[in-house]
């Protein structure tokens, strides 16, 4: 059961069931230049050129291109698929601003990985103008939402943990301060963790993840070169002619017991620990924060069991059942059975806002964006992949996806 659950968790972002359909974009009149939008992928995600035309954001339909045709400047980031949120946030900063990736001296001393990996220099960054006079909007899916929050804390630099970690182009430490981020929107983000990640040890989860992706490689679903896992900070490159079994053993031995890895921060315990450091006491309070939740499970026994809808992607069904019924996980919010509602991958209650381990709060969005609090945009009837367009089957579903992202971008752009 354990292995099936983890393989299922990983294959959600590699579902190849998208039908390559198109629909004419409904263009808006050109106006003043809009603040750029940066899309940040989640756990096990990839960049736009990594899977031979199959996009993380849209599948065979390209959300980025669609938004660009409607007058928005959009960038898609590509950060470590399995790295910790700290490491991903560092990579995100340099990918946008430019320069040599530096994970921070104290952080690398604490966790024992390489501070400035070779080959991690961004000489052609996405938006080198980025500063408090040229801010950006961030939209993150799943773990991408956690990553953006960590980046916000790094930019502000409150407290010893986040202060003077980032480097300017000349290599000198600096703390940008507030104002670099106009808004942060999280979609399907496990702000308070995923319940099933509490069921197993980190070592078991790491081994299952690597084995799961190895199975996908052996069947030819994804290319072998994906399996460096972007873990250059750990020196974990797949060696030439190295067997999959040997590579799995090396990765497991290195990452099996570290908290500087995605597995830990996606558990409810790890997410609560992250929230203790990354919250409205440490992030940019001038930005507006929005959260979208989603579900595709229904309550069948009052406050006890949730089961997946017939509309849910079949690959998620077993995991959805486990999330919807298992009594074994820790409930970080102490909200009982409601924690079992889910989108096939993430507990719906976890998506509202960071609540476990911190004093953050939220309000239901009423048309006015409030700062210093999460603006919860409601719960959508979509599974975890529907939010990305990986399960499109007809023009109607595509139109709904287009409308969602267009309205989201129009909303954040109205903040200007």
What layout of secondary structure does this protein have?
Elements: H1 2-11, E1 37-40, H2 63-69, E2 74-76, H3 85-97, E3 99-100, H4 105-111, E4 121-122, E5 136-141, H5 143-156, H6 159-162, E6 181-187, H7 202-218, H8 244-255, H9 262-265, H10 268-277, E7 288-294, E8 297-301, E9 305-308, H11 317-325, E10 362-364, E11 374-380, H12 395-413
Parallel strand pairs: 1-2, 1-5, 5-6, 6-7, 7-11, 10-11
Antiparallel strand pairs: 3-4, 8-9
Provide a descriptive summary of the structure in words.
This protein is of the alpha/beta class. The protein contains twelve helices and eleven strands. The longest helix is centred in the C-terminal third of the chain and has 19 residues, at 395-413. The protein is globular and about 60 Å long. Residues 1-31 have low confidence and may be disordered.
What do we call the CATH topology of the domain at 23-195 and 261-294 and 349-413? Rossmann fold
Report on the biggest sheet: 7 strands, parallel
The residue fraction in helices comes out at: 25-40%
- Got a strand count? 11
Please state the structural category: alpha/beta
């Amino acid at each position: 059961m354990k292995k099936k659950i983890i393989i299922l968790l990983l294959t959600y972002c590699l579902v190849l069931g998208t039908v390559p359909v198109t629909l004419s974009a409904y263009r808006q009149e050109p106006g003043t230049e809009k603040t750029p939008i940066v899309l940040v992928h989640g756990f096990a995600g990839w960049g736009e050129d990594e899977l031979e035309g199959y996009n993380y954001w849209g599948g065979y339909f390209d959300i980025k291109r669609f938004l660009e045709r409607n007058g928005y400047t959009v960038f898609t980031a590509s950060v470590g698929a399995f790295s910790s949120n700290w490491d991903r946030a560092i990579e995100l900063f340099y990918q946008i601003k430019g320069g040599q990736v530096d994970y921070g001296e104290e952080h690398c001393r604490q966790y024992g990985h390489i501070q400035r990996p070779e080959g991690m220099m961004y000489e052609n960054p996405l938006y080198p103008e980025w500063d408090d006079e040229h801010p950006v909007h961030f939209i993150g899916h799943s773990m991408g939402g956690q990553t953006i929050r960590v980046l916000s804390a790094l930019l502000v630099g409150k407290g010893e943990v986040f202060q003077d970690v980032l480097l300017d182009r000349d290599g000198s430490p600096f703390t940008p301060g507030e104002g670099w981020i106009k808004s942060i929107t999280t979609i399907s983000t496990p702000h308070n963790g995923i319940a099933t990640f509490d069921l197993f040890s980190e070592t078991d989860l790491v081994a299952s993840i690597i084995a799961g992706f190895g199975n996908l490689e052996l069947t030819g679903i994804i290319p072998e070169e994906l399996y460096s896992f972007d873990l250059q900070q750990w020196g974990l490159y797949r060696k030439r002619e190295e067997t999959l079994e040997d590579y799995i053993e090396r990765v497991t031995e290195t990452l099996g017991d570290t908290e500087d890895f995605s597995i830990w921060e996606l558990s409810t315990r790890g997410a609560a620990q992250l929230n203790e450091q990354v919250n409205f006491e440490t992030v940019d309070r001038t930005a507006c924060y929005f959260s979208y939740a989603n579900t595709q499970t229904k309550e069948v026994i009052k406050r006890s069991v949730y089961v997946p809808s017939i509309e849910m992607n079949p690959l998620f069904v077993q995991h959805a059942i486990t999330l919807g019924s298992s009594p074994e996980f820790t409930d970080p919010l102490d909200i009982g059975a409601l924690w079992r509602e889910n989108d096939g991958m993430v507990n719906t209650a976890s998506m509202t806002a960071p609540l476990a381990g911190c004093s953050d709060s939220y309000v239901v969005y009423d048309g006015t964006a409030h700062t210093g609090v999460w603006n919860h945009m409601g719960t959508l009837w979509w599974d975890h992949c529907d939010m990305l367009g990986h399960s499109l089957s007809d023009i109607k579903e595509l139109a709904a996806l287009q409308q969602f992202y267009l309205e989201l971008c129009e909303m954040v752009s109205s903040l200007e």
